[in-house]
Structures are given as C-alpha cells and as structure tokens.
C-alpha cells in the first residue's frame, strides 16, 4: 500500500514526510467500463471494487451481467487482452448473450485503452502522495475518488478524446 509519489511543495527546510506501512501487500482491484451512449451525447464510468482479490473470469462475467442490466442498448466492448477477458467462461457468456459484442484491442497497446487513462489519472492526481493506513481506508478512498470522477463528464470525455480510435465525441 505504498503511495504513488509525485512532486510536492513544502516549507523550505521541512521536507514532506509520507508515513506508510511497509511489507503490506494488501490491494484493491478494480474493474470498470467507460460507456459512451449511441449518439455520443453522454459518457459514464461504471466500476466495481474488489478488496484483496485478483480479477478473474467469474468477476468479469458478473460485471458484464450488471453492465447488461444497467445499459439498455446493445453493448460493444473494446477491451484489452487481459487473461480473464479471454477466459473460456467469459467467451461462453458473450456467445450466449446476444446483446454484448466484444472486440479486443491490439496486444501491448495501453494507449488505445481509455480506461488505462482513468487509472493513470486516479493514481497520479487524487491518490498521489496518499498512503493508506489499512485496507478499509484504501477501499473507501478509492471508491470516493472514483465516484467523484464519475461526476466529471468533461474529464471522462478527455480520456476518450486522447485515444486515437474511431470514438469521436461531439
């Protein structure tokens, strides 16, 4: 739970001190989707947090089910080649549901994935230089900061605009 360090300001002669727990390997995994409406007028960020868990096929299928319940139109997924995305269980679920169509991004191309920009923004801006005391604090702050980001549609649009794909917003 070491903080992502960024340059910071302090009084001359008083270097900033960041307190953290060492040898703590606790984590919060996040699965998210940046959703664009069919006519490109709305952008939403949907996410789920999983404390002390790795993202696996069952969590991806559960997230896709909830995504399908939340969105009404047919869903087109553009996602990276994470192993759980390519799992047999996920592919079977996608074949059985006629409303979700998945397309993979090229391998090793995080610059084409706008959700990677979301994670980069969260780590380097609101969560930078903040060291969590425990797993509960990390989970609650990550949830609060990501929910705050959900309300900033102009920022979500900027993540999509920086991706050199065909997704162009008005």
Secondary-structure topology with pairs:
Blueprint: E1 28-36, E2 43-51, H1 57-70, E3 75-79, H2 88-96, E4 100-104, H3 114-124, H4 135-150, H5 153-161
Parallel strand pairs: 3-4
Antiparallel strand pairs: 1-2
Helix pairs in contact: 1-2
Number of strands: 4
**Assigned CATH class:** Alpha Beta
Low-confidence runs of at least 5 consecutive residues: none
Class from helix and strand fractions: alpha+beta
What attributes characterize this protein structure?
alpha+beta; 170 residues; Nucleotidyltransferase, domain 5; 16% strand; two-stranded antiparallel sheet; globular; 4 strands; 5 helices
Tell me what you see in this structure.
By secondary structure, the chain is α+β, with helices and mostly antiparallel strands. 35% of the residues lie in helices and 16% in strands. The chain is built from five helices and four strands; from the N terminus they run ββαβαβααα. The protein has a two-stranded antiparallel sheet. Strands 3-4 form a two-stranded parallel ribbon. Strand 1 and strand 2 form a beta hairpin. Helix 1 runs parallel beside helix 2. The radius of gyration is 18 Å and the shape is globular.
Short description:
With 170 residues, the chain is of the alpha+beta class.
């Amino acid at each position: 739970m070491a903080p992502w360090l960024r340059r910071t300001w302090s009084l001359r002669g008083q270097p900033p001190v960041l307190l953290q727990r060492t040898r703590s390997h606790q984590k919060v995994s996040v699965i998210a989707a940046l959703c664009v409406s069919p006519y490109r007028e709305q952008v939403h960020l949907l996410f789920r947090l999983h404390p002390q868990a790795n993202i696996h096929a069952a969590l991806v299928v559960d997230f896709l089910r909830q995504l399908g319940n939340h969105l009404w139109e047919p869903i087109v997924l553009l996602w990276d080649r994470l192993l759980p995305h390519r799992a047999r269980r996920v592919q079977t679920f996608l074949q059985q549901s006629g409303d979700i169509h998945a397309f993979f991004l090229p391998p090793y191309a995080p610059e084409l994935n706008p959700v990677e920009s979301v994670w980069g923004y969260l780590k380097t801006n609101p969560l930078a230089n903040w060291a969590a005391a425990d797993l509960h604090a990390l989970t609650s702050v990550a949830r609060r900061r990501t929910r705050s980001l959900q309300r900033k549609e102009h920022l979500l649009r900027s993540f999509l605009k920086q991706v050199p794909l065909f997704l162009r917003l008005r």
